[in-house]
Amino acid sequence: MASMIERPSFYEGQILAGADLNAAVDHSRGQAARHERYLHLWGIAQGLNMKGNDKKTAAGGAYKEITVTAGMAVDASGREIILPADTRLPDEVFDQLNVSVGQLPGAVVWYPVFVTGRDSVPAAPGLSVGQCGSSEPKRWREDIQLDFGRPGDEAKEQDEAAAADGPDSGSATPRRVLLGFVRWDTAIAKFTDVKAVNEGIGPRYAGVQADTVAARGGNLALRTRSAVTKGKPGLALSEDGDGLLVYGPLTAAGVIVPVFSVNAKGDLTIAGKFEGAVTPGSVQVQSGVAMDGMIVPLPPGITQEMLDEGKAIAHLHVTSRVPPSVPPDNTAGWVAIPIECGVDAARRVRCTARWTKLVGLPTDLPGACDYLVLVSVAAA
Amino acid sequence: MKMTVLYIKDTGHVMVAVTRVAPTLWPPVDPKEPGASPEVRALVGETLPMRSFDDLASQALVPVALFVPADRLATLTVDFNEAQFATPRLCQVTDGTKLQGPPVRPVTAGHTLSGSASTVIVQLPVAVVAKPVPVQIYVPAVGTVREQSWEGVFDPDNSTKDRVSFSLRTALPTGTHQILVLIKGQFATIHAKIVP
Fold first, then answer.
1. DSSP of A293-339, one letter per residue?
2. DSSP string, A89-149
3. Under a CB-based contact definition with an 8 Å cutoff, are residues B143 and B173 in contact?
4. Averaged pLDDT, A43-57
5. Mean pLDDT of the A305-323 span
6. DSSP B9
7. Looking at residues A343-349, what average pLDDT do you find?
8. A352 interaction partners in chain B (CB closer than 8 Å)
9. What pLDDT sits at residue B105?
10. CATH 2.60.40.1930 spans which residues of chain B?
11. How many CB atoms lie within 10 A of CB A194?
């Protein structure tokens, strides 16, 4: 069983050991990490965008100098990762790590870029005063490392931290937070491009885990950007008129221009057109070509249950189709005579053509049919 | 215009095709998931009956009486292609996303069928598979003997590397039986199995 969490306690006159003071710091760090881990979702909280500036080598080769903007992320252990200033993405590190070994000339390969947090010991200032013989550090620097992976590393799952664990030190199993992707030119050993998302995978941003989200001022809002951005969508649940749900684009002042709203009485107001799969009193249509043995498809939104329960009535029309009903073989001279084309109670197509030619016996073979399905939906 | 093909999940062989003028959206389904998707159920029910099959060897349609269980099938919707729609059984789906053919080029050598009234043996000429290759057989209903279908695998790491033997639930009666053999990467083949 994992050990229980302890917090230090002090009394008057106690001689404090280093371990006592460290325990106080560790308790707070552990508590913060568990909060980040279990009440939030890990990811980028602020900044940490990758931007590329066009450059040229002395020989005229085009490349991009990539900068990671200052910001903060929380890793999967709940550890804060803070990049205090904009930082150049080191292409020399990428080169030394041999990440691009095996990259074929001309191949388009996107390498994931990660940030990881790691404890390190800062260099002691020259002529600093220290306890004789002690090798223990007086400070831990909450360092960060910009790291590179092979294609596919961005999709790897990370192990969950144990419930009582504090933040990882980052030395044994660094927990990576994806920033984006870069391309690499092996000839000039430089980055040539940068983007945030590759094949649908991009940076993940910090979130919240909550079964209840409650407002205190009577108005709960959701929007898709941190800052109010004109034209971006917003959603608000408010107590206006005893209750109102509103969705629409935001103004520059953060006010929602409603395109959809529902009040407490259930009155729905929309600015656009209403499209439902099934409108009571309507007729829904489907048509196409189906092969023998298949069940004739129903119009979108119409289900077999609706037909079974009498909420809708289907009218079917099928006609033998030649072609694409194909003759028995690819010799010339075949003539098809439809001898059967219909559907059974389950709407399964049974379509047979008699293929005949001047010489030889006729052959009966299944074929395909054109179908038209009209479904009248009962009025409400 | 789009067309939808229904294909065998494990081997990629296309069985039937359909067009629908009204776009119908179905929730995305992983083809590797067991069971039939709602779209497959809506298009074939519990089983897909087949009364003929394109035999590439004889360049002819062979009358058959086979049934494919819905849970072996998956759907793929692609742009309409007249040649593929006319002869879907000469096409195959690869990676669950691409429709190839007609006809597709076989990636392994041919095979032969042997066995007795109660067994069907599918034999590759040499142990050519480098990784497990699924194989399925479909045996028609005859008289009181219900239709049967079986799944197997050519596995390079064990005794089935070039030969898969299926024991039928019920022995086939005397006569000729059209048996469909599907091997991933090969053409679908109808074999006339003669039981003396």
1. TSBPPPPTT--HHHHHTTSEEEEEEEEEETTTSPPSBS-S--EEEEE
2. --HHHHHHTTTTTTPPTT----EEEEEEEEEEPPPPPTT----TT----S--EEEEEEEE-
3. yes
4. 92
5. 88
6. T
7. 93
8. 51
9. 58
10. 112-195
11. 23
Hey, what are B122's tokens? 């599918």
Total residues belonging to chain A: 380
CA distance B42 to B49: 14
Residues of A with CB under 8 A from a CB of B: 284-295, 297-300, 304, 323-324, 326-330, 346, 348, 352, 363-366
Partner-chain residue, chosen from A300, A328, A364, that has the shortest CB–CB distance to B24: A300
In chain A, where does DSSP find H-type helix? 18-38, 91-96, 304-308
> Which of A47-56, A60-69, B180-189 is predicted with the least confidence, judged by mean pLDDT?
B180-189
pLDDT of residue A162: 85
Q: What is the mean pLDDT of residues A81-88?
A: 93
Q: Which of B44, B58, B82 sits opposite A294 (nearest CB)?
A: B44
Each residue's pLDDT tens digit, B26-55: 777 776 777 888 899 999 999 999 888 877
Chain A residues inside the 8 Å CB shell of B27: none
Cβ contact B18–A285 (<8 Å): no
Q: Does the predicted interface ipTM exceed a cut of 0.90?
A: no
Q: CB within 8 A of A303, min separation 6: which ones?
A: none
pLDDT of B106 above 60: no
Is pLDDT of A233 > 90?
A: yes
pLDDT score at A134: 61
Q: Which two tokens stand for residue A60?
A: 């005229």
More confident residue, A201 or A178: A178
The token duo for B148 is: 């049967």
CATH among 1.10.8.60, 3.40.1190.10, 2.30.110.10, 2.60.40.1930 for B112-195: 2.60.40.1930
| pLDDT tens figures, A18-31 | 888 989 999 999 99
pLDDT in the model for residue A126: 64
Number of CB pairs < 8 Å for A and B? 82
> Looking at the DSSP assignment, which residues form a beta bridge with residue A72?
A46, A82
Interface test with B, best of A291, A322, A341, A370 (most B CBs within 10 A): A291
